[in-house]
Write a structure and sequence with these properties.
Layout: E1 20-25, E2 27-31, E3 35-41, E4 52-60, E5 70-75, E6 78-86, E7 89-93, E8 98-101, E9 106-110, E10 115-121, E11 128-136, E12 147-151, E13 158-160, E14 166-171, E15 173-174, E16 177-178, E17 189-195, E18 200-204, E19 210-217, E20 219-222, E21 225-228, E22 231-235, E23 240-244, E24 250-257, E25 265-267, E26 270-272, H1 275-286
Antiparallel strand pairs: 1-22, 2-3, 3-4, 4-11, 5-10, 6-9, 6-11, 7-8, 7-10, 9-12, 13-14, 14-17, 15-16, 17-24, 18-23, 19-22, 19-24, 20-21, 25-26
Length: 290
Amino acid sequence: MTSTPTTNPTAQTAGSARRVARIIRAQAATDGAGVRLYRSLGSPALPELDPFLLLDEFRSDVPADYLAGFPNHPHRGFETVTYLLAGRLRHEDNKGHAGVIEPGGIQWMTAGRGIIHSEMPEQEQGLVWGFQLWVNLSARDKMTEARYQEFTPTEVPEVLLEGGSRVRVIAGVVAGIAGVVRGIATNPLYLDVALAQQVTFQQAVPSGHNACCYVFEGVVDMGGKAVQRGELAVLTPGETVTVRTADAPARFLLIAAQPLNEPIARYGPFVMNTQQQIQEAFQDYRAGRF
């Protein structure tokens, strides 16, 4: 799904510009059964950016880095978002849901009151590359029933910009084109932006949202600060985000959402509001009530 080319998707939008408040370098980590990845959000340097709890990039063409995958594990109280750029991931859960995420595909899973699932590579060699984002749920939604929004690569709308740049709209709106993921309480913006060299991109972001930008190819300029591959730029409040490239193309995720402003209690795969609720989550999991 592709829209008509445009020079500036939000040229009609005026408002205060967001700046870079701080830059976090993604740190090497392991998760699942030993998958090697790079963690920017959810690290000691940035434990959370309300309502976001974690952002991982996994990228390797070495099978030993990813073959062990993410075997069965539980979640409660938040949402996991898997966006794949290369490779194939098979997922299954204890609710009878199963499928394969392919390059360019997106899965937004609301764990709610509890789910047990797995994500395993559907290949034994080649590149596996993608991202996992965790989004918190409000207290009133933490015990909702688990659900999925899952879309194939061709279902994700793409806005073409002049000069060869383009934006894949996972959630939110660009140039009047709405993303495929909808009905999320925090009203998120999730964009995959690929810019050609020497271009300027501007995007409206609701002023009350917390926002960040993760660069995974090249270098971009945001308000006079360079953000490089593997860096997460946490943005100041404002209404617009402006990104420029110099003599090379770049690609980044632009992510924003309404903060919940609620207490966070988290332990491993559970994110609740109190430690008592965390203990209850463990008790329910052990008792087979997920």
